[in-house]
Amino acid sequence: MLIIPAVDLREGKCVRLVEGQLDQETIYSDDPVAMAAHWQAKGAQMLHVVDLDGAFSGSPKNLNVIKDILKVASIPVQVGGGIRNMQSVELLLELGAARVILGTSAILKPELVSEACSRYGDSILVGIDGRNGRVAIEGWGVTVEKGTIELAVEMKNLGINRVVFTDIRRDGTLQGPNFEAISEFAGATGLKVVASGGVSTPEDLRTLKKMEPLGIDSVIMGKALYAGTVTLSEALAIAAGEEAEAG
Predict the structure, then answer these.
(1) pLDDT per residue as tens digits for the range 120-143
(2) How confident is the model at residue 247 (pLDDT cuts 50, 70, 90)?
(3) Domain containing 211: what range?
(4) Is residue 245 in some structural domain?
(5) pLDDT at position 111 over 70
(6) Active-site hit among 8, 51, 167, 171
(7) Which of 51, 53, 129, 167 is catalytic?
(8) Which residue of 68, 127, 140, 231 could cross-link 164, Cys pair, CB 3.0 to 4.6 Å?
(9) What is the pLDDT of residue 246?
(10) 3-state class of 138 per DSSP?
(11) What CATH number has the domain bearing residue 108?
């Protein structure tokens, strides 16, 4: 199981939101590039970078910061937020992103997902963000009627193999993941799942580690790392099944 620290970008800063609410923002660093380098130096094997301004506006807004992160990172970086056309997908991959995450496009432009998958295969992920079982889009500001599992199956049929699944009600809250929703989602879709939202304790990670056979192959961590409720070294040891060795 892979542990993926999150670097969320807003107005050029590294921030965390609670349940995606702009009025519940904590700024953790004025230098997201240094933060990305910090997590890499601490042993991260991949980074998760989200352009929050892009997610809300519909087009990338922090490209210069993303470029600089990709320059300093020697580990794979997955990037999401406001990617709603093929030009943005191509640009990010050309800049060195290992994975590009399509979110709102899965609802509004499924043909983009299909084309991106056919061109770039496993470099394309879909981010499925759920609020009470329904899909939220456009920076989580809009909830549509479609269910998360229904959308995931549609995306699988278009060629997607891995999704980032976020329970919005848990994101940034440190209240623990929605294990039931994650388990149901993974079991019903058969997709590889990157679990996101709510991890707050080492025990949360141990529970997710036990869900690996369901297809939970990685976990995005944000607030828990920034607030220090779980250290990256702890998380990496649990994910690798090496807690005893880590002491």
Answers:
(1) 999 999 999 998 889 988 877 788
(2) very low
(3) 2-240
(4) no
(5) yes
(6) 8
(7) 129
(8) 127
(9) 42
(10) coil
(11) 3.20.20.70
